[in-house]
Structures are given as structure tokens and as C-alpha cells.
Amino acid sequence: MNKKKCIIIPVLNEEKNINKIFFKIKKTKISSDVLFIDDNSTDNTRLNIFELQKSNRNIKYIYRPKKMGIGSAHKHGIRWCYKKKYNLIITMDCDGTHDPRYLLDLIKESNFNDFVITTRFKKKNSIDDWPLHRKFLTILRLYLTKIILGIRYDASGAYRCFKTEKINIDDLIKIKSNDYNYFFESIYQLSKKKYKIKEIPIKLPYRKIGKSKMTIFHIFQSLMTLLRLKYFKK
């Protein structure tokens, strides 16, 4: 029986990447809806999505009136998908770093695991083209989550997949964090609840088009979240 699938893609000023990511997904031949969640982009992101919708009925769109955080967008999309009775949910970025060629691997592993995530640290040369400072921050975050929280996964990535029947929605949308810290906090909470989590290795090229939305504030925010989870567990 064909299961309902939805790919959630938060967007903010990604006008140059919308078509690229959609047609790469389409090329995989996977039967899935694609949900773009737009936090009030000021470029042509919305217009590009509307143009694609004219000839692609599987494109869904949620507009939010202001920037509310990428973690918040994931929670919004997950809540929407559960309400619409999707059987399988995939989340990914729009910036070109998450290659749709891994979608089939994610879906396959979701048959045998509760929650499937991607890792940048089990494939040789996965982040070779990244700037040195971003490599340092990503590796530092990996070790901090391992040391402080005891998480053994590459927990900060957004490229994920799971079947809704296997995951209690509250375990994903009642996470306190609303920005990049959402990703490792959600993995921390899922691992605490003994869900079976599976990592698949991917190559993650650095963003080629557009600008990263991560700032120094997000790094500080992530550190505060690590300390909150470690010392204020309730």
C-alpha cells in the first residue's frame, strides 16, 4: 500500500534554491508531497513556490508572518503533517547541502528504525569544502553534545526521516528550543525515551548559493541549551 509521505523544507530568502531542490527531489521519482514553510522571505522565494505550484499539485506552502526560528518551523511542519495523516515525514534544508539522492536510504532505514538521521562524520571527506571556522564549530558541537549530554550521534543536522506511527508527536513538538538548538535537543529527548535511532553517512557540501542564517547568537544559544539540558533536566 502506498504510504503518504511529506518532505518538510523550511525556507527564508532561498529564491535561488527553490527550483533546484524541488527538481532534484522530483528526479528521485519518490511519491511525496513537498511542504515549504516560509518565515516571511523578503526576496522572490514565495513567488517561485507559487509558480511551481501551478504545475505541481504535490507542493504545499505555509506562510508565517515573521522569522520564528528553524526549529519552530520544523515543529510547525511536523504538527501539520500529523494532522494531515501523513505516514512518513522527511525534513531537510533548502540550501543545497542536503542531497535528495539520500532520500531512498532514509526511507529504507525508516522501515527498521524509529528515527533516521544523517551524519557528516562517517563518510570520508564529507565536509572537506567547508570553511575552516565552520568545520571547527561543527566538530566542536559534535563533541560538546557527546561530552555534556552523552549523545553518541551527529545530532545537529536537519536531514531526518521517520514514520509517524513510530514517534509520539509530543516528543518532537514539545521541545523547548525553537532554533538550531532544536535539532540536538530533539535527539537528546528521543534517545532518553529509548527510541531506536539510526545514522546514515552522507557527504555534505558547503552552501554554494545564498547565505547561512546561523549567527554568533545561535552559537551562544546552543551552548546555553546544552547547559540547561545538563543541569536543569526538569
Describe the structure concisely for a colleague.
With 234 residues, the protein is of the alpha/beta class.
- What is the strand tally? 7
Q: Based on Cα principal axes, name the global outline.
A: globular
Radius of gyration over C-alpha positions, nearest whole angstrom: 17 Å
Kindly identify the CATH topology: Spore Coat Polysaccharide Biosynthesis Protein SpsA, Chain A
Number of helices: 8
CATH class: Alpha Beta
The tally of structural domains comes to 1
Q: Helix-strand pattern, N to C?
A: EHEHEHEHEHEHHEH
Contiguous uncertain segments of 5+ residues? none
| Class computed from helices, strands and strand pairing | alpha/beta
Distance between the ends: 42 Å
CATH superfamily: Spore Coat Polysaccharide Biosynthesis Protein SpsA, Chain A
Main sheet? 7 strands, mixed
Q: How much helix is in the residues?
A: 25-40%
| Overall pLDDT score | 91
Estimate what percentage of residues fall within beta strands: 15-25%
Q: What's the arrangement of strands in the largest beta sheet?
A: 3-2-1-4-6-5-7
What order do the helices and strands come in, and which of them pair?
Layout lengths: L4 E7 L6 H10 L5 E6 L6 H9 L5 E5 L6 H14 L4 E4 L11 H7 L5 E5 L12 H18 L10 E4 L6 H4 L7 H12 L4 E5 L14 H16 L3
Parallel strand pairs: 1-2, 1-4, 2-3, 5-7
Antiparallel strand pairs: 4-6, 5-6
Helix pairs in contact: 5-8
